[in-house]
Specification:
2 copies of one chain form a homodimer. Helices cover 53% and strands 12% of the residues of chain A. The first copy, chain A, contains 9 helices and 5 strands, in the order βαβααβααβαααβα. A 5-stranded parallel beta sheet of chain A has the order 2-3-1-4-5, with helices on both faces. In chain A, 40% of the residues are buried.
Chain lengths: 192, 192
């Protein structure tokens, strides 16, 4: 079974995956994008483009990564526990936040297609606030997405919440301001 | 307006584009995949993968190329004449010939999405025969796709013909065995 860790940057997804992995010694840790060689290559390719990529081209590249990740990591390990840092919820939500001209139904269709025809697994969703994002951004180095600013991250989060309402999988909502040990316990209970 | 030159390898698409370009001195010559920097990068990336790409991942990479080609080459030049060596007909037909688990309706939807929401332009379709393919393959160096063999190319051609039946654009059917000067005249008349 795959557990998708979703939420905008600074909400503590990676921290939690590292916290709980000791409780699940056989778990497979992965991420999107970047959990396959293709994902790593695509990241380099996107950063190396001189002309800006169209939003649709970028969408298809992320879908290619998702399809390959499904084929290479998710499907062959479906009988093990897989902890994935991001997945299709991020894929759909960032596309919406970037105001791509593709409707929500089509985005769901494209992502289902990349994931073998259906959505599977459980979702842990980390929710944050403007003030918590600001505090955490000051504490760490900023990557390209984080530099787009707090308003952008809050917009992505709103999209994630609306996308989650349409997904029929078990979802654990986490208040990202809680202390990390207490969050880890909630997640362990949800997974077991 | 874009004119898509479609047909399997060895049917003479590139030869014809080179023949007629003198009659249309302002025409923009392009191709799919490879008409953009992204296309060239994707080709290198695909060839450089150690693990085989899943058929869906490959489909999405070609769609990313098509979307970028549309945004960078087709749309900005829509008031000029664009001669494109391959396009969405090849995209859909090769996916079908490779027995990808995506139905024809979805393949059309994906390609329309990559092309700004609708199919535009005219299509020149080159049709060949088993014996003509064999003759021409003996005359030239084989690339990876051609090496898959004559039967494969004939299978792709059958898919192209079934796809063309569902496309509502002007189509010029060319018998690839005709002499090249006579074919060039037919194409010039169709484009003008």
């Amino acid at each position: 079974m795959v557990v998708w860790f979703e939420g905008v940057d600074t909400t503590g997804k990676s921290t939690q995956i590292n916290m709980i992995k000791n409780s699940f010694p056989n778990a497979i840790l992965t991420k999107e994008p970047g959990g396959t060689q293709l994902g790593v290559s695509l990241r380099e390719l996107i950063l190396g483009q001189k002309k800006p990529l169209s939003s649709k081209s970028e969408l298809f590249l992320f879908l290619a990564d998702r399809a390959q990740h499904y084929e290479e990591v998710i499907y062959p390990n479906k009988n093990s526990l897989i902890l994935s840092d991001r997945g299709f919820i991020s894929g759909i939500s960032y596309a919406l936040a970037n105001e791509i001209e593709v409707d929500l139904g089509t985005l769901f269709l494209l992502n289902r297609l990349a994931l073998g025809g259906s959505f599977e697994g459980k979702i842990v969703f980390f929710e944050t606030t403007t003030s918590l994002i600001k505090k955490r951004l000051q504490e760490k180095e900023l990557d390209a997405i984080e530099l787009r600013g707090v308003d952008y991250l809050m917009k992505v989060q709103e999209k994630m919440k609306s996308v989650l309402k349409r997904v029929e999988l078990p979802i654990l909502h986490i208040d990202a301001s809680r202390n990390i040990e207490s969050i880890a316990k909630s997640i362990e209970g949800f997974i077991k």
